[in-house]
């Protein structure tokens, strides 16, 4: 019987990191489901839900990952994943939204409150600050699941919120 685990790795960002981790998991027979990787400043975070064959334990994965040179000193966590590994209907991406412009405290929270208002699910979110010249630029990308009957109003409200904050706004259907 297979088991499902959550693999989390945090370490300095470097070339070959994702290839090293996923290659190791493949060699152990793990089947990756939802997987993400992102650079966070000079660090990097890799997270994956993985189905393991019967003969591979959490300790096997932990020990093998700790032997990888690029993961020297990394924070590695392998834990049982007790939720459903397959996304439900609210995990389907229906729209991609980008908001960009000047950085300000509370920006992500203000936009996310709109999604709550329309019962939209944020499937993925990426935000980054780009330092350039006189003013920092902030770019937030949302991949969301919007109900058809609420999508137009939600998108209009996000657009109005972005406009009030003097931010650029773009969306596209998935």
If you had to describe this structure to a student in words, what would you say it looks like?
This protein has helices at residues 17-27, 58-66, 107-117, 148-164, and strands spanning 3-12, 31-40, 43-52, 75-80, 95-102, 121-130, 137-145, 168-173. It has a 4-stranded antiparallel β-sheet with strand order 2-3-1-4, with helices on one face. Strands 6-7-5-8 form a 4-stranded antiparallel β-sheet, with helices on one face. It is an alpha+beta fold. It is built from 4 helices and 8 strands. The model has no long low-confidence stretch (mean pLDDT 92).
Give the arrangement of secondary structure elements.
Layout: E1 3-12, H1 17-27, E2 31-40, E3 43-52, H2 58-66, E4 75-80, E5 95-102, H3 107-117, E6 121-130, E7 137-145, H4 148-164, E8 168-173
Antiparallel strand pairs: 1-3, 1-4, 2-3, 5-7, 5-8, 6-7
Helix pairs in contact: 3-4
Would you count the extended β strands for me? 8
List unreliable stretches of 5+ residues. Answer: none
Helix content: 25-40%
- What's the N-to-C terminus distance? 36 Å
Q: Give me the side-by-side strand order of the main sheet.
A: 2-3-1-4
- Strand percentage, roughly? 35-45%
* Overall average residue pLDDT: 92
The outline comes out as flat
Work out the radius of gyration.
Answer: 19 Å
Supply the number of helical segments.
4
| SS content category | alpha+beta
Largest sheet: number of strands, sense, barrel closure: 4 strands, antiparallel
